[in-house]
Design goal:
Helix content of chain B: 40-55%
Strand content of chain B: 15-25%
Order of helices and strands of chain A: HEHHEEH
Number of strands of chain B: 22
Oligomer: heterodimer
Largest interface: A-B, 20 and 25 residues
Structural class of chain A: alpha+beta
Largest sheet of chain B: 11 strands, mixed
Radius of gyration of chain A: 16 Å
Radius of gyration of chain B: 34 Å
Distance between the termini of chain B: 64 Å
Shape of chain B: globular
């Protein structure tokens, strides 16, 4: 099986979503400029395809106007991939230091 | 999967699914839009600048997200050669290529943004006004019908019916599923500070259930509320609730004294409910036996049964109406027919044509913008022949090259759409503020919404194809060998491109000329409208509409006493020149009556407009007396049967005879249900010049002016001529009236010029301003187009110019040569444009006043403007060419 690839933006999103649900706009604001509004939805879409994150529509009160926003959260698989990548990077860093 | 339920209408939904792939919709469009809406709501109450910044950033991000998503997941177009990866490459390459030529990209985006922005603005109005003007279910099937007088040239007709007539229609028409009724009612609300007038409406209690609309607060009117023994209740409109009562929710259940009856407020309508233009709704049960309702007229609206078309309904109602008309012959004109109209048409009427005219104008502007960008792309394409030749020699086939160039124009168009949406957002605010009150239903909310954004996307795609396809084909067709040689001179492809540029310039000039001709005609028409002789002087006249307490002032004597005292008090106010009472609303409305003249026989019906006025009317309105005299104080006080007629009546009904001293019978005054005039025959004592009496565009109808004291019927208003600004005297005049009776309420109060601006000048001015903006933008784009083509041609011909000058050509020869080459396409465009204008300006004929659609002076002026602009655009590059140093030019080799 091929080892799942994780880009820096995807890692950033998984870190931000660890243990909580967030909207796309919140993710952009929380990233302090690392994520852009123009690209975050495409990245999230790809991550859903890879199974790193999943999403649901926010619950709305009856009579609310406008579209419901989409809430994103990590999957167990996404967290494992993130942890694996973090471990891999740390290992490489330690090896490099030696 | 989320369905895009926000889109009204399956067609738009399908369109969205064609434009975007399913995953782009679900993963990008919907989440991005939802976040955008959320952000928009957050800053709804912020200042203009902050809102503009936040929304500008939000829209830009949305479009960028869309562009990225299209790169990541291309649209579901199935072509074997279009591989996802290559589409992504094309997009990346397009961004890079345009980034290297920022000025070019910025100018192209700005040009497209102007075109797409204008189109989006007008589409927003059309979408909201024509396709979503009313809330409620099955609005598409709601219709009204009108009795149209076929002798009347203007469209429309009577769409309200007397109670018994209404019930006859309701019982006999089979095409209707359900019928609702509404009737205007003036409501006086007595407060301790004075009496307040409300526009009111009596509604059959199924009105709210008919549209499937509930109350925003409290409850709606129900069948029980209309029972004779039910406690009196009413509903307020949302607008009246917020504007008059500050949106106080505690108001529900409060008792108001309306028309002298304690009435409980039971509900507030939703914001988008404005039936009959009323502020207050009272319930009514249509009972044939109710004497209070017998003479009242009700507006009839109904929902057609499923499957019944307008034509089928019209055919059936025509038969029923011929039967009903026999029972109420006085209510029907001599020749008439039934017209069934949709609810939208009934409310919007001729404004639909205005919107379509503006749509046509904006389409012309968009075409000019496309032509301009196509020209810019052509010019750029010629300089990229070498690059294309290299790509072709490395194996790219023609389809691949065309696609690459099309993707570039698509990127430009999407960026243009993004900026255009911003333009549309702000343009729409300005446009909505400029739309005169009453032209569109109050329920309509005009805003940029998802269908509008989709429209701008489709416009962008169409623009990309229109502006990019020809240059792309042109470039891809180019010769492979010549461009790869080192020579910087023109190639065959370049010459072809240049020819095409000139064709495009000619087309742009033609389109621009059509726009300018339309604008010129409207401008002349508007000047004529404002400059015409009205027959009276509307400057410095205050018009005060009064609502008298119900039950009081019903008789002629009571009204005479009230108005004498009121006019005396107003006349004594400082700043008042004169004042008069009148039953008419100059220059729009007056009582209409059949008239008879002793000793004259006629076959057709003779009619006249009847003004019931007091003695100061001539001075107050500024009427011009032609012969005889006007009504005197004694004649008004004594309710003498004397009359003054206008020149139109004298000419039409007396011919060569002298009307003064003859008599005229005003039939309507003798048959009034309340306070009829016995033997309504009046002696003519004077003749006044014609003054407008059915709107300012129509010629004056015959009219007759009589003392208002002959009857107690009809509501009256007061006209006050002032020495200063009339509106400054509003409170003083109101105070003088309340000194006589505090129970009198005020309807509309304002200067005559205000009314005329609102009712007669606002719509033509709106159309004129919009067309003028489009025409100016179009002209600038055309000038830019001509300039770019000539400048590019000069740049390419520098070498040739150098040779000519080295061989003895004078600077003037060069100037002439370049000017000629630039002005030829302009001249061709002018010829085509003039021919097109002659055909197309005919659609404006309904807006024109005192000028024909083929007015030679306007057309000549427009041709002059286009030629001057074309000349200026050619002159500067031509002057540069004439200053070419032959030595430098020859070094181009």
């Amino acid at each position: 099986m091929e080892f799942p690839r994780l880009s820096s933006k995807e890692a950033e999103i998984l870190e931000a979503l660890r243990g909580q649900e967030m909207f796309g706009l919140q993710l952009v604001q929380a990233s302090l400029g690392k994520l852009k509004r123009g690209t975050v939805y495409v990245t999230l879409g790809r991550m859903q395809e890879k199974g790193f994150v999943e999403s649901r529509l926010e619950e709305r009160q009856a009579g609310s106007i406008g579209l419901p926003r989409r809430l994103y959260r990590t999957t167990a698989f996404g967290v494992r991939v993130l942890d694996a990548w973090n471990t891999f990077r740390e290992t490489l860093a330690v090896a490099g230091a030696r | 999967m989320t369905r895009l339920r926000l889109l009204p209408g399956e067609r738009l939904h399908r369109l969205a699914e064609i434009v975007f792939s399913r995953r782009v919709l679900d993963d990008v469009v919907i989440p991005a839009l939802a976040d955008l809406q959320y952000e928009k709501a957050l800053v709804a109450d912020a200042g203009f600048v902050r809102r503009a910044l936040v929304l500008g950033r939000g829209y830009a991000a949305f479009w960028l997200a869309l562009a990225h998503s299209l790169a990541a997941w291309p649209p579901p177009v199935r072509r074997p050669s279009l591989r996802r990866s290559s589409m992504g490459q094309d997009l990346k390459y397009a961004f890079r290529a345009l980034g290297k030529h920022k000025a070019f990209a910025a100018l192209a985006v700005l040009t497209l943004a102007l075109g797409i922005g204008s189109a989006t603005t007008i589409f927003s109005v059309i979408q909201n006004v024509l396709f979503d003007p009313f809330p409620g279910h099955d609005v598409d099937r709601v219709v009204a019908f009108q009795i149209h007088d076929t002798k009347e040239s203007r469209p429309g007709g009577r769409s309200s019916f007397q109670l018994a007539e209404f019930l006859d229609y309701q019982e006999q028409i089979q095409s209707f599923e359900e019928v609702i009724a509404g009737s205007f009612e003036s409501v006086l609300y007595a407060t301790k500070d004075g009496t307040v007038h409300y526009a009111g409406g009596r509604l059959s209690t199924n009105n709210f259930s008919f549209f499937g609309i509930g109350a925003a607060l409290g409850r709606t009117l129900g069948p029980d509320d209309a029972r004779p023994d039910a406690p009196p209740v009413f509903m307020l409109t949302h607008q009246a609730w917020t504007h008059r009562f500050g949106g106080d929710p505690g108001i529900l259940g409060r008792v108001f004294v309306l028309n002298g009856v304690p009435t409980t407020l039971v509900g507030v309508t939703p914001p988008r409910w404005a039936k009959l233009g009323a502020e207050i709704y009272l319930p009514v049960a249509l009972d044939r036996a109710d004497p209070q309702l017998a003479g009242r007229f009700f507006v009839l609206q109904a929902r057609l049964k499923p499957g019944v078309t307008l034509q089928q309904a019209e055919a059936e109602i025509e038969v029923v109406a011929r039967r009903v008309a026999k029972s109420y012959p006085k209510l029907y004109p001599e020749q008439w027919k039934v017209q069934v109209v949709s609810l939208v048409d009934q409310q919007i009427g001729p404004f639909r044509t205005t919107l379509y005219t503006l749509a046509a104008a904006v389409a012309l502007l968009l075409l000019i913008a496309c032509g301009n960008v196509a020209n810019m792309l052509l010019t750029r394409a010629t300089s990229r022949e070498r690059e294309m030749a290299i790509r072709a020699s490395l194996g790219a086939n023609r389809a691949r090259l065309v696609r690459q160039l099309l993707v570039e124009s698509l990127v430009l168009a999407v960026a243009g759409a993004a900026v255009g949406c911003l333009f549309a957002y702000f343009g729409l605010r300005a446009l909505v503020a400029a739309i005169p009150v009453g032209l569109i239903p109050r329920q309509t909310v005009i805003q940029v919404n998802l269908p509008v954004l989709l429209f701008s996307l489709v416009a962008a795609a169409a623009t990309a194809v229109l502006s990019g396809l020809v240059p792309a084909l042109q470039t891809a067709r180019g010769c492979l060998v010549e461009p790869l040689k080192d020579s910087g001179k023109g190639t065959a492809g370049g010459a072809r491109g240049h020819r095409l540029s000139r064709v495009l310039v000619a087309a742009e000039v033609a389109l621009s000329l059509v726009l300018l001709a339309g604008t010129g005609l409207l401008m002349r028409s508007f000047v004529n409208l404002q400059g015409q002789d009205l027959g009276f002087d509307p400057e410095r006249v205050l018009d005060v509409r009064l609502a008298l307490p119900r039950g009081a002032y019903e008789s002629a004597a009571e009204k005479k006493r009230l108005f004498r005292e009121v006019l005396d008090r107003i006349g004594a106010l400082p700043g008042v020149v004169s004042a008069s009472a009148t039953t008419s609303f100059a220059p729009y409305w007056a009582v209409d009556s059949e008239v008879e003249i002793a000793g004259e026989t006629h076959v057709e019906t003779w009619r006249a407009r009847v003004h019931l006025v007091s003695e100061g009317h001539r001075e107050t309105l500024g009427l011009r007396l032609r012969r005889g005299r006007f009504l005197s104080l004694d004649e008004v006080e004594g309710a003498r049967k004397v009359a003054v007629v206008n020149q139109a009546l004298a000419a039409r009904y007396f011919g060569e005879d002298d009307p003064i001293g003859r008599t005229i019978e005003i039939s309507t005054l003798g048959t009034l249900p309340q306070s009829p005039v016995a033997n309504p025959v009046f002696e003519i004592v004077g003749i006044v010049a014609d003054s407008k009496n059915r709107g300012i565009q129509e010629s004056a109808l015959p009219e007759v002016i009589v003392p208002h004291t002959v009857t107690g019927s009809f509501q009256r208003g007061i006209l006050v001529r002032t020495s200063g600004p009339p509106n400054a005297l509003q409170s003083a005049v109101k105070g003088a009236i309340w000194q006589v009776d505090r129970g009198v309420a005020f309807g509309d109060v304002g200067s005559l010029t205000d009314w005329m601006r609102r009712f007669s000048y606002a719509e033509p001015r709106l159309v004129l301003v919009i067309l003028a903006v489009f025409a100016c933008v179009g002209l600038v784009l055309v000038a830019l187009g001509v300039f770019s083509v000539v400048a590019y041609s000069v740049a390419r011909q520098t070498h040739e110019i150098g040779i000519r000058m080295a061989l003895g050509a004078e600077r003037l020869d060069v100037l002439r040569m370049v000017l000629r080459s630039g002005l030829v396409p302009v001249g061709v465009g002018v010829v085509i444009g003039v021919a097109a204008s002659l055909g197309l300006t005919r659609v404006l004929s309904s807006y024109l006043f005192g000028v024909t659609p083929h007015d030679p002076a306007t057309l000549t002026a427009v041709i002059g403007v286009v030629l001057v602009a074309g000349f200026a655009a050619c002159y500067f590059p031509a002057r540069r060419a004439a200053r070419v140093d032959p030595l430098v030019a020859l070094r181009y080799e």
